[in-house]
């Protein structure tokens, strides 16, 4: 009896946590498929009586009369995608090479450099933004995806080096020694032995970098103001600022912005937990 | 011996070649800007980025440290950091513990935790802002139907409530992060210690406090430092939910820096503020590295 009671209490606690997780998400999704009239009704229609995909259609097939933010939202999705994948690709190549050198090649000061890299990763964006803004405006890079890709490297690259270093550190050195004895050069060893084994590390690092870049708001807010480079978080923030009444579009934008990171995270779930324990952080 | 030395030099050369691109990028977009920020903070420049500047030494810092607005922002930042990180740690530990006992549905719960963590910060903020909406929000609707309030409350217009509502949104986003880290750490703990303690007559609470918690200490510290650094620089979620209002009640130190720099054009003072934030972060980074590099504390 005691055991039954204990299980019952535990199940109720699980249910409570699940409610806290899913109720806000459910409301986000429900709001995105409700008509404006239903959203603005009192008492609240928890279940929409006339569910509609109109908000999604407005974003993907905009017609006349749709608000500007909704009309340009798919462009900002594309911008976010371009910026996040470029940052991911660059940091994976550049960062894993540096991480390998720091862990395996007996460079002077590698420990100090690793700690320094860790330190730069923690510098808040706001402490870099003024000089970077001046740099961007001198080179006429404001409002381009390029400036976002460059500035995102400031947090993404140290982060990737740190994570990849942790992964390289777990690969037994004997494996490399064996390859060296068989006549592989350093770079051949790296390409043929280390990189294939590190695939899980690369996936995990790539995932974290992509999510962080997709999430980034502050640099995008400061450096972009037109659809030429504006990213999804900036577009969503604009919904809240200017188009207070257009809640449906706002929530639809939110759902669309959340789908890629949530989907990736669920698919690569096991990499996330291992990455988190290796000291990874995302916003 | 000679051959070994040249191999070593060969390695160092390749190493340098591999690390150079990263070094250039980090020096160019992190180190150089932070030094520039320090440099700007020594000048009086209060009318935008391209205005004439006068060297005033530590003048900006003196102005800030004697300004009540600055200390109010520090106070709010500390409040946000202590309350949100404190609650997140307690709830995260509780949820990790819950998953560890493997009740029915624990796998689904563990997977579900990933969702709030993966939802972008701005989406999280927008979602809660809509939930808190005064006229049509779900919070009002729910509380009214449950009979807990008898008329709608304009939540975000109340200075004494706004910060706590931002904290609630932050908790939704960040508790899963801590729960996932701690749950992974719990799974690696040896079971025999606690079993031995149980045989010796230690009750569940004693086992938790005296064995499990000390073993979890490194994981807890890592989560704590990461979250503290993040919470201290909180900006995005405040920008979306309250815009610093009502009546400046949610203006944290990062938000104040943003206002000084980009709304008022006080480049010098903004630089001084952002450099102070960096200093704090540096201290926390030092703590973090000390934790990670103490081998006897590694699990």
Annotate the secondary structure layout.
The complex is a heterodimer of chains A (283) and B (299).
Chain A: H1 2-32, H2 36-39, H3 54-60, H4 68-104, H5 110-121, H6 129-138, H7 145-169, H8 173-181, H9 186-197, H10 199-215, H11 218-223, H12 232-242, H13 247-267, H14 269-277
Helix pairs in contact in A: 1-13, 3-13, 4-7, 4-10, 4-12, 5-7, 7-10, 8-9, 10-14, 12-13
Chain B: H1 2-40, E1 43-44, E2 54-55, H2 59-65, H3 68-100, H4 106-118, H5 121-131, H6 138-145, H7 159-187, H8 192-199, H9 204-232, H10 236-241, H11 253-263, H12 267-292
Antiparallel strand pairs in B: 1-2
Helix pairs in contact in B: 1-12, 2-12, 3-7, 3-9, 4-7, 5-7, 7-9, 8-9, 9-12, 11-12
Protein described:
- The complex is a heterodimer of chains A (283) and B (299).
- Chain A is mainly α and 283 residues long.
- Chain A has 2 domains: 1-52, no CATH class; 65-277, MetI-like fold.
- Helices cover 75% and strands 0% of the residues of chain A.
- Chain A is built from 14 helices and no strands.
- Chain A has helices at residues 2-32, 36-39, 54-60, 68-104, 110-121, 129-138, 145-169, 173-181, 186-197, 199-215, 218-223, 232-242, 247-267, 269-277.
- In chain A, helix 4 (68-104) runs antiparallel to helix 10 (199-215).
- Chain A starts with a helix and ends in a 6-residue tail after the last helix.
- The radius of gyration of chain B is 24 Å and the shape is flat.
- A two-stranded antiparallel sheet of chain B has the order 1-2.
- Helices cover 74% and strands 1% of the residues of chain B.
- Chain B is mainly alpha-helical and 299 residues long.
- The longest helix of chain B has 39 residues, at 2-40.
- Chain B has 2 domains: 1-31; 41-124 and 154-297, MetI-like fold (Orthogonal Bundle).
- Chain B is built from 12 helices and 2 strands, in the order αββααααααααααα.
- At the A-B interface, helix 1, helix 4, helix 5, helix 6 and helix 7 of A face helix 1, helix 4, helix 5, helix 6 and helix 7 of B.
């Amino acid at each position: 009896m005691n055991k039954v009671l204990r299980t019952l209490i535990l199940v109720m606690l699980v249910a409570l946590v699940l409610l806290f997780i899913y109720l806000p998400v459910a409301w986000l999704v429900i709001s995105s498929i409700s008509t404006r009239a239903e959203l603005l009704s009192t008492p609240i229609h928890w279940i929409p009586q006339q569910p509609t995909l109109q908000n999604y259609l407005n974003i993907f097939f905009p017609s006349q009369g749709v608000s500007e933010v909704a009309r340009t939202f798919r462009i900002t999705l594309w911008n976010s995608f371009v910026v996040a994948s470029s940052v991911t690709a660059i940091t994976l190549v550049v960062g894993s090479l540096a991480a390998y050198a720091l862990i395996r090649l007996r460079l002077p000061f590698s420990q100090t450099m690793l700690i320094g890299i860790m330190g730069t990763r923690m510098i808040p964006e706001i402490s870099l933004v003024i000089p970077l803004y001046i740099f961007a405006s001198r080179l006429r890079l404001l409002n381009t995806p390029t400036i976002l890709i460059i500035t995102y490297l400031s947090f993404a690259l140290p982060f990737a080096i740190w994570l990849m270093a942790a992964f390289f550190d777990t690969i037994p050195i004997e494996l490399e020694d064996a390859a060296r004895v068989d006549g592989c050069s350093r770079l051949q060893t790296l390409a043929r032995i280390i990189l294939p084994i590190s695939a899980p590390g690369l996936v995990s690092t790539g995932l974290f970098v992509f999510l962080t870049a997709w999430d980034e708001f502050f640099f995008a807010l400061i450096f972009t103001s037109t659809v030429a480079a504006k990213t999804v978080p900036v577009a969503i923030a604009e919904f809240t600022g200017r188009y207070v009444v257009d809640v449906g579009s706002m929530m639809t934008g939110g759902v669309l912005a959340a789908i890629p990171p949530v989907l990736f995270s669920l698919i690569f779930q096991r990499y996330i937990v291992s990455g988190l324990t290796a000291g990874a952080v995302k916003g | 011996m000679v051959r070994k030395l040249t191999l070593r030099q060969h390695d160092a050369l390749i190493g340098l070649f591999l690390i150079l691109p990263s070094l250039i990028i980090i020096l160019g977009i992190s180190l150089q800007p932070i030094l520039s920020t320090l440099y700007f903070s020594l000048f009086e420049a209060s009318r935008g980025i391209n205005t004439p500047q006068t060297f005033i030494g530590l003048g900006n810092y003196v102005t800030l440290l004697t300004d009540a607005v600055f200390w109010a922002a520090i106070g709010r930042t500390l409040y946000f950091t202590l309350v949100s990180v404190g609650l997140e740690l307690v709830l995260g530990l509780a949820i990790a513990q819950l998953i560890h006992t493997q009740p029915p549905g624990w796998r689904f719960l563990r997977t579900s935790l990933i969702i709030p963590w993966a939802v972008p910060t701005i989406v999280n903020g927008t979602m809660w802002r809509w939930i808190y909406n005064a006229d049509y929000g779900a919070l009002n609707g729910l509380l009214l139907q449950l009979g807990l309030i008898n008329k709608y409350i304009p939540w975000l217009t109340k200075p004494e409530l706004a910060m706590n509502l931002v904290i609630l949104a932050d908790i939704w986003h960040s508790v899963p992060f801590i729960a996932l880290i701690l749950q992974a750490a719990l799974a690696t703990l040896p079971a025999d210690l606690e079993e031995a303690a149980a045989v010796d007559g230690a009750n569940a609470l004693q086992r938790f406090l005296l064995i499990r918690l000390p073993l979890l200490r490194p994981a807890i510290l890592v989560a704590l430092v990461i979250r503290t650094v993040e919470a201290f620089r909180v900006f995005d979620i405040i920008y979306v939910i309250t815009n610093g209002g009502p009546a400046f009640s949610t203006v944290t130190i990062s938000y104040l820096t943003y206002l000084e720099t980009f709304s008022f054009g006080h480049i010098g003072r903004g630089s001084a503020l952002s450099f102070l934030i960096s200093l704090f972060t540096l201290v926390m980074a030092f703590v973090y590295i000390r934790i990670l590099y103490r081998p006897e504390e590694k699990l």
